[in-house]
Amino acid sequence: MSQALPFLPFALPEIGDEEIAEVVDALKSGWVTTGPKARRFEQDFAAFLGGEPGLEAIAVNSATAGLHLALEALGIGPGDEVITTTHTFTATAEVARYLGADVVLVDIDPATLNIDPAQVEAAITPRTRCIVPVHYAGLAADMDAILSIARRHGLKVVEDAAHALPTTHRGALVGTLPSDATVFSFYANKTITTGEGGMLVTRDAALAQRAKVMRLHGINRDAFDRFTAKVPSWYYEIVAPGFKYNLTDIAAALGIHQLKRLRGFQARREQIAQAYDAAFAGLPLIVPPRAKGDDQHAWHLYVVRLADDAPLDRDAFIERLFALGIGVSVHYIPLHLHPYWRERYGLDAARFPHSQRAYERMVSLPLYTKMSDADVQRVIDAVGQALRG
Ligand SMILES: *Cc1c(COP(=O)(O)O)cnc(C)c1O
By the 8 A CB rule, do 240 and 213 touch? Predict the structure, then answer.
């Protein structure tokens, strides 16, 4: 019976008529690259975070670009060490290597799958400059502990918030916490999408200024100012060898309307997560940790782990789910297992027991707003069937 149903993809974006109309408007306007819509998206994003004066949102063409710009603006370079979690996507760590800095990977807290602050503190050396926590799956990392360690040791903190829109930590939205910078992703499968895109958020005026210059070739003001100035203005100066990281207006057009729908998207994701939690209660699965107190989980990912008494291993579980027409994934193959990271730093899985064990038992199930209640039920039924054998 389930064979007759089409394959349920692991993730799908939800793009509506407003997004499409705004993209068409950009195309017809004659201004397709960074311009008024990118600026509006930045303003709307800063307003979404509460509109605090001095908090700047800087649109970029990926979160990877935003992380690179943040570390560059903080002066991270050769000889420096950046501490992050092994349990993440490679983008979190690769940006430090772009700058010639070294990456120090640490293990996770097995309950939350977020970076373990005790491991961070133990990894600090005289070369440590920055900590990059990831709010894994959309659950805030232990930012009180991380910010306190950073303060005590004089370190910078750049949050990889690719999963964390909208996530709260003690009632405050991620993006407004007292770190140096926070970077969001609008990649196709994230909680809102611009196809490719990202947002760098900071209260540090010097960091913002540097990131805006480096975002576009090291030009001392952006193309939008240059071409719309009232006074004819052809002159510009290159003040650094910058990058090409600006977000196009075509992409920003999507972002403007995705952002308007974010609260609704989050509510639907929460609903699906709750349906899964309830359905999986009696099964040999560890369901994802909930946010503490009244805090909000962004539910970018719903990651289950097979319990010790599960009748099959992770690979067999995935094979059965695929056979039942359900797309799933694994987040992540830890960085310490990838050839580049393993060989560059001589890493060994025994140094990351919690990440390693979680990886060996974890599966990410479909969780996205385009899923119907029937799709959710299909996943629930398939998980039950796969575990019963
Ligand atoms: C998606 C993702 C990124 C990179 O985002 P892009 O916008 O694709 O560059 C970085 N870190 C984590 C944890 C991610 O999931």
Answer: yes
Q: How confident is the model at residue 382 (pLDDT cuts 50, 70, 90)?
A: very high
Helix residue ranges, H only, 114-261: 117-123, 143-153, 205-215, 223-228, 249-260
Distance between CA atoms of residues 14 and 190, nearest Å = 11
- Domain final position from 226, 260, 294: 260
pLDDT tens per residue across span 217-235: 999 875 446 566 666 678 8
Residues with CB under 6 A from ligand 1: 62-64, 88-89, 91-92, 134, 160, 162-163, 185, 187, 198
Per the structure, the count of domains in the chain is 2
Amino acid at site 200:
L
**3-state class of 221 per DSSP?**
coil
Residue carrying the six token digits 């099959």: 312
**How far, in Å, CA of 180 to CA of 157, rounded?**
5
pLDDT digits (tens, 9 = 90+) for 245-259: 999 999 999 999 999
Who contacts 176 (Cβ-Cβ below 8 Å, separation ≥6)? 49, 50, 52, 55
Give, using CA atoms, the residue closest to atom 8 of ligand 1.
187
Q: How far apart are CA 133 and CA 50, in angstroms?
A: 22
Catalytic residues: 190
Residue 106 sits in the same domain as residue 65: yes
Please indicate, yes or no, whether residues 332 and 367 belong to a single structural domain of this protein.
yes
For 173-221, what is each residue's pLDDT tens digit?
Answer: 999 999 999 999 999 999 999 999 999 999 999 999 999 999 999 998 7
